[in-house]
């Protein structure tokens, strides 16, 4: 192969690499550098490099609780989203071709509505005078408070993330075959065993992808915890906003951003390991 031909793949990749560096890597590197800068009163940033910001993040138990609380919310939200979306996705996959497209559009259509609008909708539904509270009162019970707390945020996030989870599951269901299920049933396997031994293993790649996206989107969520949490549900994204906009402490906001990327990277590594084990 001649010299110019050997360079062709690199030249074709160069525009994409430059765009990724300009819009992703460069800002992330800037945040990493900013986290080592000196924070001054009034929101100004000093030129001196220091480890004080990272030392504060490591020594202050508030930030440890912030990370563990964000992960502690993301894990149950991810599980609840999977449990709610899996039957719907499986039903859509097994529907006839005539209805499948319509059902997919119906399940994905909430993505056309802003998360802000959907969050305000949940504030009305879960409010003290909302539909859920009214339904509970009809049974003579006192409704629990479901707004401005973690429970309301979790409920709203599950609904907001369900379309994304359904799309990931439908992609994973592409490996399913009715012939395999029929073969297992013909050998005497009951429906539940067919699901555990055939359907679930073949759909695991889609399950893992959906769980990864749901986890990352929950940890990085801002609108729903900020509005529906009423300032009482503090996650990494809300704390980054407060540090950058309210207290004007940009080095702490940058350090928390880098910490969020570390959490996302750990989740991605776990996803890759589990995916290799599933497909082995």
Q: Could you characterize the architecture of this molecule?
A:
With 280 residues, the chain is mostly helical. The protein is built from 12 helices and 2 strands. It has a two-stranded antiparallel sheet with strand order 1-2. It is globular and about 75 Å long. The model has no long low-confidence stretch (mean pLDDT 88).
Task: Identify the notable features of this structure and list them briefly.
mainly alpha, MetI-like fold, globular
Let me know the CATH homologous superfamily of the domain at 57-110 and 160-279. Answer: MetI-like
Strand order of the largest sheet: 1-2
- The number of distinct helices, counting runs of at least 4 residues, comes to 12
Total E-strand runs = 2
Task: Please compute the radius of gyration using only Cα atoms.
Answer: 23 Å
The CATH topology name of the domain at 57-110 and 160-279 reads: MetI-like fold
Summarize the structure.
By secondary structure, the protein is mainly α. The protein has helices at residues 3-34, 52-59, 61-94, 97-108, 115-126, 131-137, 150-172, 178-186, 191-219, 223-228, 236-246, 250-279, and strands at 37-39, 45-49.
Secondary structure layout plus pairing:
Layout: H1 3-34, E1 37-39, E2 45-49, H2 52-59, H3 61-94, H4 97-108, H5 115-126, H6 131-137, H7 150-172, H8 178-186, H9 191-219, H10 223-228, H11 236-246, H12 250-279
Helix pairs in contact: 1-12, 3-7, 3-9, 7-9, 8-9, 9-12, 11-12
């Amino acid at each position: 192969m001649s010299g110019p031909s050997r360079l062709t793949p690199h030249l074709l990749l160069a525009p994409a690499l430059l765009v990724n560096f300009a819009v992703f890597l460069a800002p992330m590197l800037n945040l990493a550098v900013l986290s080592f800068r000196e924070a001054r009163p009034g929101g100004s940033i000093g030129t001196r490099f220091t480890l004080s910001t990272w030392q504060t993040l490591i020594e202050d138990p508030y930030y440890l609780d912030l990370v563990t609380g964000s992960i502690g919310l993301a894990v149950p939200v991810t599980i609840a989203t999977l449990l709610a979306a899996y039957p719907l996705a499986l039903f859509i996959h097994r529907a006839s071709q005539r209805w499948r497209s319509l059902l997919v559009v119906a399940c994905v259509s909430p993505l056309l509505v802003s998360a802000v609008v959907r969050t305000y909708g949940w504030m009305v539904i879960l409010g003290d005078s909302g539909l859920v509270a009214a339904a509970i009162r009809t049974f003579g019970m006192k409704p629990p408070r479901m707004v401005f707390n973690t429970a309301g945020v979790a409920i709203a996030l599950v609904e907001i993330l369900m379309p994304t989870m359904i799309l990931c599951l439908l992609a994973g269901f592409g490996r399913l075959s009715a012939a395999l299920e029929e073969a297992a049933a013909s050998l005497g396997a009951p429906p539940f065993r067919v699901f555990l031994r055939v359907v679930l293993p073949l759909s695991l790649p889609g399950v893992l992808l959906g769980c990864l996206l749901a986890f990352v989107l929950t940890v990085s969520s801002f609108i729903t915890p900020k509005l529906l949490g009423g300032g009482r549900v503090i996650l990494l994204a809300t704390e980054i906003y407060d540090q950058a906009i309210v207290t004007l402490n940009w080095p702490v906001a940058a350090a928390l951003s880098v910490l969020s990327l570390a959490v996302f990277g750990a989740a991605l590594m776990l996803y890759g390991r589990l995916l290799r084990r599933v497909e082995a």
